[in-house]
Amino acid sequence: MLTFALPKGSLFKDSIQLLQKAGLDFSAFLDESNRQLQITDPTGTAKALLVRAQDVPVYVEYGQAQMGIVGEDVLREKTPKVAKLVDLGFGGCRMSIAVAQASGYQSPLDLPPHSRIASKYVNCARTYFDSIDLPVEIIPLYGSVELGPITGMAEAIVDLVSTGKTLKDNGLIEIEVLYHSTARLIAHPLSYRLHSDRFGQLIQQI
Ligand SMILES: Nc1ncnc2c1ncn2[C@@H]1O[C@H](COP(=O)(O)OP(=O)(O)OP(=O)(O)O)[C@@H](O)[C@H]1O
Ligand SMILES: O=P(O)(O)OC[C@H]1O[C@H](OP(=O)(O)OP(=O)(O)O)[C@H](O)[C@@H]1O
């Protein structure tokens, strides 16, 4: 039986709908009274695990799930050993650097050396600032990263932007886009090679 790791949160509903179009029904996860974290499709041919977005590649890398759906941002941050199969087109957002509008910074190069940068994406942030040779202190956070510059804890943030509303409502502006991200279908590399027919059929349907 094929097992999928599906992300809770922003990508959840689109992931369920996509698999429904491919003939796999995991809509039981949409029922909020159901607290099961693992369900089997009514056809009995596939199973899904409901996990945090950041944990999807972990289940796929370790082989507990043969396939998963996860944002490109998580793949760049975690660099897991998984096969990247298809750009699914939903979950569009960008990884950006933002600062308080009042700070006057218009480019990352305006940031003073040893600035503090708050982020959930510490590796993406580190890679970018290394690439421009600017020494910075990265402050790891787990959410509400926009509070970094507002409270004065950090000069800038590296975070996802989609509509831009969170930045706007908190008086922040984007000064650089690091990359664009959408949801990806990923697979356990060995399973993908061993079951290429089944995977190929499913990818066609998706
Ligand atoms: N505002 C957004 N608009 C569109 N896609 C987004 C947005 N924020 C995040 N995403 C995409 O959805 C994925 C999951 O994000 P989500 O916010 O649900 O989880 P998370 O906050 O990163 O994880 P967790 O809540 O488990 O810590 C991200 O990795 C990204 O690819
Ligand atoms: O540009 P927008 O459409 O406003 O979306 C951007 C917001 O979405 C994500 O936050 P999320 O909802 O995942 O919250 P968290 O990072 O604080 O957990 C991201 O970290 C931004 O805060």
Walkthrough of the structure:
It is a single chain. Helix 4 links the parallel strand 7 (115-119) and strand 8. Helix content is 29%, strand content 31%. By secondary structure, the chain is an alpha/beta fold. The chain binds adenosine-5'-triphosphate and 1-O-pyrophosphono-5-O-phosphono-alpha-D-ribofuranose. Adenosine-5'-triphosphate is lined by residues 7, 9-11, 52-54, 71, 73-74, 91, 93, 160, 162, 181. Adenosine-5'-triphosphate (ATP) binds at residues 7, 9-11, 52-54, 71, 73-74, 91, 93, 160, 162, 181.
CATH superfamily of the largest domain: Periplasmic binding protein-like II
Give the beta-strand count.
11
The biggest sheet, with number of strands, parallel, antiparallel or mixed sense and barrel status, is: 6 strands, mixed
Count of individual helical segments: 8
